[in-house]
User: Fold this.
Amino acid sequence: MLSLAELWSPIRLTLALASITTVLLLVIGTPIAWWLARSKARWKEAVAAVIALPLVLPPTVLGFYLLLALGPSGPGGWIGGFFGLRTLAFTFEALVIGSVIYSMPFVVQPVRNAFEAFGDRPLEVAATLRASPWDTFWTVAVPLARPGFMTGAVLGFAHTVGEFGVILMIGGNIPDRTKVLSVAIYDYVESLQWAQAHILAAGMLVFSFSIILSMMILGKRVARPGA
Amino acid sequence: MNQSAATISARYAGVLGSFELDVAFEVPMRGITALFGPSGCGKTTILRCVAGLNQMPGRLVVGSEVWQDDVAGKSLKPHERAVGYVFQEASLFGHLSVRGNLRYGYRRALKNGIPETIRFDDVVELLGIGYLLDRATGELSGGERQRVALGRALLAQPRLFLMDEPLSALDRMTKEEILPYFEALRASLSIPVLYVTHDISEIERLADHIVLLDSGRVIAVGRLNDLLADTRFPLARNRDASSVLEARVNVFNAEDGLTEIDIGGEMLVVPGRVGENGSTYRVRIGASDVSLAVDRSSQTTILNVVPVRVLDIQPLDEAQLNVLLTIGHREGGPKLLARITRRAKRVLGFAPGQQMYAQIKAVSLVRSTGRLPTSTAK
Assistant:
């Protein structure tokens, strides 16, 4: 009855989704956070609001629009056409796209805060020490913002792991392709498979607790040196 | 535009925020030039424009290099300008050790193929920061931090040193601890310095030239004492206005315990043994410590009586006058500022051109200029 492979599949899928999403979030979110922290454009707060939208939007609303966008008559279907697909919806790629959008504020916000926290001065100092802006970014801004990156990465990862509504809307419930942890738990409960639901749910509980705990410990350790 | 290669020539005219700046000055490419004025006069803005941290329409030529020329549409980026900038706060990089901070600009300068005229070990020794190299920056005292910041800027191999009130964030004790390093720097390096301050005592001690500023305009540019003593400018109107003069140690008189010093050919004495014969010092003479007499009075406890010629007399307030003097009876002697009462002038009845005698109550040594105060001279 209790099939290990059956339990492992959603865990593996979830870890893959969260890892890929976190890497993409750092790659995409960092320049956005930098721009939000440094730009003097008046409309930047509008951009910040759009990025923060998933914080307040019901996941089903976001999922609904994503479904339309990824479906056959949206841009997703058009792009899918190049790969011989009729639609991007109900694929692992759809989950990645949805997760990146859904978890974006959890990465952009702490990284932006970290970029803002040290002000202009370290960047000016670096410029007077012959460092180009690109050089300064990598050798001063990123190291100084490290706590923000760590918080962002952990939050982005954890939030992706816990995602449910958006996934259900755009991924469906296809084993080995889109059936991630949260959906699997829901599925087990629906079909009254309590033991399986227990194992996955308790696992999530432990995972979440260790994430929060390690973040707090890390946060303390990072706060100490420097000043 | 024809200009000598041995100057820094700056011109800025524009608006930054709500502040309007319109300045032009040319200062020598050596020694310390103080940008001096009340807060809000634009001195820091000028410094930031020179570093390229602020942009303002204008032109900047440092020696033979054009750093900004709006006509040619040229303005070097901050990192392309060979400056060493010392900010008011040390602003060390918190993620790097002291060594990492010192090496930041140093590595980049050498990588750009700039010759290593300022060596790492020399700077560490000059600033006495060897014992700090492997520390985290958070563990340093205020004075140590500013010394490291100074060293970090130096090691970027600058052609021009910019200092924005580098001592103002420090308490008095720490300031006294740091000043000798600035003096050592001045004596051992030939890099020109633009030094922003509103503290006249720092100017008296460090500056060779002054750019006097007020509300975004240049009031005067000149050599230190020419501006300190000039009755037309606000420095001479300060309550503790002074003259700062170069003096050469002549001889020590062991019997009286006095050292005879030579200022523009006239001899003054100062208490105690001061330096070696022939070494030069900078001395400060407060305007209120100078009184005037029509002849060389013999009946006085004041030892320092020198012949002077009156150059200019300007009213200061309802009771006092500023009198600009030149020491000695020759043309072009060092200038000395005296502060006297209107009544004394009425009684003595003197006028510009007249030869008189200045009685100098106190002469304070500001610093040694002729040799290094530390043993690291190379």
Q: What stands out?
A: Chain A touches chain B through 22 residues (CB under 8 Å). The domain at 4-38+59-223 of chain A is CATH 1.10.3720.10 (MetI-like fold). Residues 178 and 206 of chain A are 23 Å apart (CA to CA).
